[in-house]
Design goal:
Strand content: 15-25%
Number of helices: 10
Structural class: alpha/beta
Radius of gyration: 20 Å
Bound molecules: (2R,3S,4s,5R,6S)-2,3,4,5,6-pentahydroxycyclohexanone
């Protein structure tokens, strides 16, 4: 029997998750969608092969026909909607961020802990990318020795007009924040942010790029160039330097052409293209967890921890200082 999924939010990510669920996730069926934008919702419902359309997300969450919920609505709606899913006892896949602030993330954590069972999987899809998984395996095999540096580059072609300077941390670099915790298996302990001159290609009011320097509990240094107006394409790089060797994220497969005396490789346009495989893998894992009665993968706690560090980055830009980060140890549900 297929898991009946309801999708809240049919914008860029919601529509993409619907397409992925339909094309690449056996065992799931999108039976309902919700969006205040009727036309967009109808289009998404058609893409799902005739799903029911709701305008009110809570109606979808409460519907007896819906077994599990995907939340891809605007950031500030995540907290109340995830809480509604927890109250209904339904497994939920929530796009990052878990909630708009660390304090709000903690409220979600508390609600899940109170239920005593993991129902929330967060959309940190890069953990499902084979390249990052290979880096983690290499580190764990011991071949490169103890880690010293993690160098990261996070470039987007362009940012939407509503993208704020704070979102550079909470929306973009939050992926590297999560990866640093997951890959190195240690909590982050401080954040410093260096600000070069702003790119003339950034939209007015957006301070872009930034250079973030994090430290973890093993004194590994993690640097992240975050540049969301890079123009030429979507480019994600990562290298982990150890005492005896290094391991790097492989470049994505790309069409290469040779013409007019030059070799030309295509660069992905955005994250949906670059991480398509990871998006499918995370949703397959979530559906499998839903079938098994307890979801795994990136947790509400991971969402909270990442948000705490993103907020420290923002504070670091205001004061120019290194901001210490200290996280309490996670409740037993997340260990
Ligand atoms: C976006 O929300 C994502 O999650 C992408 O992975 C990231 O590269 C981009 O910067 C964010 O805005």
């Amino acid at each position: 029997v297929a898991i009946a999924v309801g999708v809240v939010g049919t914008g860029v990510m919601g529509a993409d998750h619907i397409r992925t669920l339909v094309e690449a996730v056996p065992g799931a069926e999108v039976i309902a969608v919700a969006d205040p934008d009727q036309a967009r919702a109808l289009k998404a419902a058609q893409a799902a092969g005739g799903a029911r359309v709701h305008t009110e997300p809570r109606e979808l969450i409460g519907s007896a026909a819906v077994n599990a919920v995907v939340i891809a609505s605007p950031d500030e709606t995540h907290e109340p909607l995830v809480l509604a899913c927890l109250e209904a006892g339904k497994p939920v896949f929530c796009e990052k961020p878990l909630a708009a602030t660390a304090a709000a993330c903690l409220r979600v954590v508390d609600a899940e802990v109170a239920r005593g069972r993991r129902l929330v999987q967060l959309g940190f899809m890069r953990r499902f990318d084979p390249g990052y998984q290979g880096m983690k395996r290499t580190l764990e095999s011991g071949t490169i020795g103890r880690p010293l540096f993690l160098h990261c580059v996070h470039r987007n072609r362009e940012a939407p007009p509503w993208f704020t300077s704070a979102m550079l941390f909470s929306d973009s670099a939050v992926h590297e924040i999560d990866l640093a915790r997951w890959l190195l298996g240690r909590e982050l302990t401080s954040a410093t942010v260096h600000t070069p001159r702003s790119s003339s290609q950034a939209h007015p009011g957006l301070r872009d790029p930034r250079f973030i320097v994090l430290r973890n509990a093993d004194d590994v240094i993690i640097d992240v160039e975050t540049f969301v107006s890079a123009r030429y394409g979507y480019d994600i790089r990562c290298e982990l330097v150890g005492e005896r060797g290094t391991v790097a994220l492989p470049a994505p497969p790309s069409v290469t052409s040779w013409a007019a005396g030059a070799e030309r490789r295509e660069v992905p346009g955005d994250w949906r293209e670059r991480f398509a495989g990871a998006y499918a893998a995370e949703l397959r894992a979530w559906v499998a967890g839903t079938e098994a009665g307890e979801v795994g993968g990136p947790s509400a706690w991971d969402g909270y921890a990442a948000q705490v560090v993103a907020e420290a980055c923002l504070e670091a830009t205001v004061t120019g200082q290194t901001i210490p980060v200290s996280l309490p140890s996670p409740p037993p549900l997340y260990r």
